[in-house]
Amino acid sequence: MQSLKIKVLAYYRQQVQDKEDAFRDMIDALTEGAANDAKGSAGDKHETALSMMHLEQEKLNHKLKEILEQKSVLDKIEADTVSSKIILGSLVKANSMYLFLSTALPKIVVEGTTVFALSPQSPLGSKLLGSERGNEVEVNNTKYIIEEFC
């Protein structure tokens, strides 16, 4: 299970890095477009276009900030850390599902295993934190039995 955890962490880190790169490219393209547009135009249409570009740039910057926060959480996780209780970065098997306690990210499939990443602040994540093998936690009338974790 430890090798799966290492691959899951690497996959999520790569996924977040790819998103960061894409958003930085979009922001750079908008910044360049606004600079070029500012040189050649004047008038109401120009002002509206420039205003829309700035709004789009603000949205992209907000998304980038979220991605950088996710990256920061993932960077704190050491794949080889072993703990007697579930902590940030634990890969947990509960009810035959794999849960990666990190930050809320899309589900992935690694080596044919579906993994759900969840935040420690989520209802299930907060209940899992500090739990041990064999413990049972309940969220929304669903009981989760912790089979194993690393």
Largest sheet properties? 6 strands, mixed
Number of helices: 3
Strand content: 15-25%
The global form is elongated
The helix/strand order is HHEEEEHEE
Helix content: 40-55%
The count of β-strands is 6
Structural class category: alpha+beta
Mean pLDDT: 91
The oligomeric state is single chain
Cα-based radius of gyration, to the nearest Å: 21 Å
Termini distance?
Answer: 7 Å
Order of neighbouring strands in the sheet with most strands: 3-4-2-1-6-5
Low-confidence stretches: none
Overview of the molecule:
Helix 1 (2-40) packs antiparallel against helix 2. The longest helix is centred in the first third of the chain and has 39 residues, at 2-40. With 150 residues, the protein is an alpha+beta fold. Strands 3-4-2-1-6-5 form a 6-stranded mixed beta sheet. It has 3 helices and 6 strands. The mean pLDDT is 91. The termini are close together. Helix content is 52%, strand content 22%.
Give the topology, please:
Layout lengths: L1 H39 L3 H33 L14 E4 L2 E5 L3 E6 L2 E6 L4 H6 L7 E4 L2 E8 L1
Parallel strand pairs: 2-4
Antiparallel strand pairs: 1-2, 1-6, 3-4, 5-6
Helix pairs in contact: 1-2
In brief:
With 150 residues, the chain is α+β, with helices and mostly antiparallel strands.
